[in-house]
Specification:
This protein is an alpha/beta fold. The chain is 40% helix and 23% strand. It has nine helices and eleven strands. Helix 1 crosses helix 2, helix 1 packs across helix 3 and helix 5 packs across helix 9. The longest helix is centred in the first third of the chain and has 28 residues.
């Protein structure tokens, strides 16, 4: 079996066409260099170099083998560099979970930043609700998640990275659209598109608590799990809604957004990960995300 050291010796002699100069280049003496070439030729069963006292000359087999030897050495060097980068957290693959609302602006901005500062890390995206992300973290299906709420887990750690207010979403021709800002009482008895208690539990509970505290009773006409679906119904005039401010990135033509006052509520986003995850790139990504959202 030929060895990488033998290939390096052969390439040096083939490029220098002189054993003495090749030995100096490799920081070794000439006899061991000659021995390595002989071992290589013996393992291949062919003569690669014709030797004279002053110089060496490649045989036809040696000329062809030189290009292959160079490619093998380049592959070996690339593989060793990749292994070191992965071990040091500079390269590898990371699976990232996120909620649909996070995909409107927050997560895309982070992905652009991560591509600049961590170019060796491949990010695989997985859209999941918060509860599904926690389960995926615990089972190793994803490496890091961006979730809306903290759920009890002995292994998952949470870092608060973002807060955003809620805003009102109204059809462009709605009477309330003329107001500069809305309060909870503006929604009383209004046709309202609500988050589903099962699929959009986080937002459902916050909005329901807001209305309960102010003794407001909207007319719930539809309950949906995803923000873009809710905005779609507002866009065709079926009702009004309360959504996180990031939903304004959807830019639907017949929807206007107005700030909410007296809400005492914000939508939070947490970075979640398992501290015992062995993926070597996780710690580097978590630190980059912390600094980005700080």
């Amino acid at each position: 079996m030929m060895e990488l050291h033998q290939l390096r010796c052969f390439v040096a002699v083939a490029e220098e066409l002189h054993f003495g100069r090749a030995a100096v280049r490799l920081h070794m003496t000439q006899p061991p260099l000659s021995r390595q070439i002989q071992l290589l030729e013996h393992s291949l069963g062919v003569l690669l170099l014709e030797r004279t006292n002053r110089q060496a000359r490649l045989t036809p087999a040696g000329q062809n083998f030189l290009e292959d030897a160079r490619r093998i050495l380049q592959i070996a060097e690339s593989a060793s560099q990749s292994a070191r980068r992965i071990a040091h957290g500079e390269a590898g693959r990371l699976t990232l979970g996120f909620t649909a609302v996070g995909a409107y602006s927050l997560i895309p901005q982070l992905l652009v930043h991560a591509a600049e500062v961590l170019p060796g890390i491949d990010l695989e995206l997985s859209e999941r609700v918060s509860l599904g992300q926690v389960h995926a973290l615990e089972t190793g299906m994803i490496d890091v998640g961006f979730v809306r709420q903290v759920m009890p887990s002995a292994r998952v750690e949470y870092v608060l990275i973002h807060r955003e207010p809620f805003v009102a979403a109204l059809p462009a021709g709605h009477p309330l659209a003329v107001k500069a800002e809305l309060g909870p009482h503006d929604f009383d008895q209004q046709p309202f598109i609500m988050y589903s208690e099962s699929e959009g539990r986080y937002f459902h509970d916050r909005i329901a608590n807001l209305f309960a505290r102010h003794q407001v009773q909207p007319q719930y006409i539809h309950q949906l799990g995803q923000t873009h679906s809710i905005i779609g119904l507002v866009n065709v005039g079926l009702g009004i809604a309360v959504v996180p401010a990031s939903a304004q990135a959807l830019h639907m033509e017949q929807v206007v957004f107005r700030p909410l006052v007296q809400t005492e509520q914000e939508a939070e986003m947490f970075l979640a990960y398992c501290s015992d995850n062995p993926n070597p790139v996780l710690a580097e990504f978590v630190e980059v995300a912390r600094r980005f959202f700080a």
